[in-house]
Design a protein that fits this description.
Elements lengths: L9 E7 L5 E6 L2 E5 L2 E7 L3 H7 L4 E8 L2 E13 L9 E13 L21 H13 L5
Antiparallel strand pairs: 1-2, 1-5, 3-4, 4-7, 5-6, 6-7
């Protein structure tokens, strides 16, 4: 899982509001920063950020990479309220993983969802690299 989370891997993050309403978010600005730590850039407008920043810190995520389908549960904290590299207001959120489960099935090959920038959006590759770098630079403590 750590190796697959070097930047650009899709994860589905599940959070719950303080009143118990579930929400999911597809995230690709995700980087492993330690053996059991994952950093994610979350849009301030997203329900995931709103839920976590409101104190509903228990989260789950499903990581979708080539030949890997892994679920993780843990606790999320806002490590940096305002990221510098994102094109819109985002927070750097760190997930401390308590449990990991492999949801892969022997004999079934999974191909991860991928994305490609259109010609007029190619500048976003450099922007993404900067976001991944900022997330990777977060202290693992």
């Amino acid at each position: 899982m750590h190796g697959a989370l070097a930047g650009g891997t899709a994860v589905v993050l599940a959070t719950v509001s303080p009143t118990g309403i579930p929400a999911t978010a597809l995230c690709t600005w995700v980087v492993a920063i330690g053996t059991r730590l994952i950093a994610i850039a979350l849009d301030h407008r997203s329900s995931a950020y709103v839920n976590i920043s409101a104190g509903s810190a228990h989260v789950a995520l499903e990581m979708l990479a080539d030949d890997l389908v892994i679920a993780a549960r843990g606790k999320a904290t806002v490590r940096r309220a305002a990221m510098e590299s994102t094109p819109f207001p985002c927070a750097a959120v760190v997930l401390e993983i308590d449990e990991i489960r492999d949801h892969s099935v022997k004999g079934i090959r999974f191909h991860a969802p991928t994305y490609v920038f259109d010609e007029d959006k190619r500048h976003r590759r450099d922007l993404e690299r900067a976001i991944f770098s900022e997330l990777a630079s977060l202290p693992s403590q």
